[in-house]
């Protein structure tokens, strides 16, 4: 089976769950004897792709050219993004592939794919559920996603909850067309004790974006009394860049400026950050899946999250659930984990057990079955 891969996500995402998913899946498929990944990418900003077996001499050369030109003051990002798409169109037109795998929702390829099958993965339905957060959506996600969902040979949903949400918005789609394939996680046990990271002694962990539906201010309102009650506890915000002036103003107004830290981690440092935390809090209003939940469980870090969206499907009884939109209940659950060592150990152990159900090898096998099924249907 020859899979032609779409460069979209590798064009715009430096790192993140979507590009991580595809890199892990495509890298494993490439190793399989009877399968081949046709890779049209000249150059990518994506750190996962650039560290994977998917990158070949051509990509290494163009990455070098890109970096050299950047040092000389010329940014070729837009040039290479367009070149990646142009090369993909050339591959589509020649038709020397079996299945096309689109990595995001731009339907540019429909004019060139002919009668070849394609598969689209839906990571979440956030744009449809929370349109107020995406008023300036340059990707036209909702409109483009609808086009692809209706035309795709198969749809992969990253959770049963995401499949349910797809059918909620598009009930005309045959549910048999949608297959659920869970994610895995990529942290290694060797990453649990990286001595070069300077971490607070006792900290509550928050990972990733602090914008919009991630519920950052709700989280702050919950943890502020905990921090004020115990000066030895702090919050570590991992990733998403330095604090903005607005965020710093909020911290100062709450009187917690000296108990908040931000750290932009390297990939191999994330295991240590989870492993040393008192707990990981995921206050997001919605996630299609939520890879950080798997990461935390794998690293022996208890997870506090709401009993909503895909969360109970992923963490099951390993998660510590708070009542949706309740600042007080979230605070109570965090305090319980901090003060009750037996409960903390119980949820860590349940997390170790739960994580056994999720890995990239399983995900690759299930994705391969989906790709092969459309090949059979198309022959």
From TrEMBL:
Q: Which residues form the signal peptide?
A: none
The source's superkingdom equals: Bacteria
Question: What are the entry keywords?
Answer: Transferase
Q: Where is the Glycosyl transferase family domain?
A: 190-353
The Glycosyltransferase subfamily 4-like N-terminal domain is annotated at: 61-184
CDD domains associated with the record: GT4_MtfB-like
According to UniProt, the name of this protein is Glycosyltransferase involved in cell wall biosynthesis
């Amino acid at each position: 089976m020859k899979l032609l891969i779409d460069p979209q996500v590798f064009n715009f995402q430096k790192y993140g769950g979507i590009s991580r998913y595809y890199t892990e899946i495509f890298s494993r498929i490439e190793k399989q004897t009877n399968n081949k990944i046709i890779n049209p990418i000249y150059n990518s900003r994506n750190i996962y792709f650039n560290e994977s077996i998917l990158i070949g001499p051509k990509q290494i050369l163009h990455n070098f050219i890109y970096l050299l030109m950047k040092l000389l003051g010329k940014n070729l990002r837009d040039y290479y993004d367009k070149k990646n798409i142009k090369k993909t169109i050339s591959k589509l037109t020649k038709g020397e592939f079996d299945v096309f795998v689109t990595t995001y929702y731009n339907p540019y390829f429909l004019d060139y794919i002919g009668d070849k099958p394609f598969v689209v993965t839906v990571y979440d339905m956030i744009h449809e559920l929370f349109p107020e957060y995406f008023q300036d959506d340059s990707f036209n996600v909702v409109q483009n996603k609808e086009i692809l969902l209706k035309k795709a040979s198969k749809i992969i949903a990253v959770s049963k909850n995401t499949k349910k949400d797809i059918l909620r918005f598009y009930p005309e789609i045959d549910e048999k067309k949608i297959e659920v394939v869970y994610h895995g996680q990529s942290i290694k046990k060797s990453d649990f004790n990286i001595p070069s990271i300077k971490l607070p002694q006792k900290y509550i962990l928050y990972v990733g974006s602090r914008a919009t539906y991630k519920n950052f201010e709700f989280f702050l309102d919950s943890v502020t009394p905990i921090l004020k009650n115990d000066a030895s506890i702090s919050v570590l915000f991992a990733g998403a860049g330095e604090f903005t002036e607005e965020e710093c103003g909020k911290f100062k107004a709450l009187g917690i400026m000296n108990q908040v830290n931000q750290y932009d981690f390297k990939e191999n440092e994330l295991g240590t950050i989870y492993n040393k935390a008192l707990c990981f809090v995921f206050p997001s209003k919605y996630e299609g899946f939520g890879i950080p939940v798997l990461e935390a469980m794998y690293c022996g870090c208890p997870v506090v999250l709401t009993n909503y969206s895909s969360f109970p499907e992923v963490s099951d009884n390993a998660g510590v659930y708070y009542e949706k939109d309740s600042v007080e209940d979230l605070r109570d659950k965090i305090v319980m984990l901090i003060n009750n060592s037996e409960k903390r150990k119980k949820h860590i152990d349940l997390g170790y057990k739960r994580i056994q159900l999720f890995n990239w090898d399983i995900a690759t096998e299930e994705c391969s079955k989906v790709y092969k099924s459309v090949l059979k249907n198309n022959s």
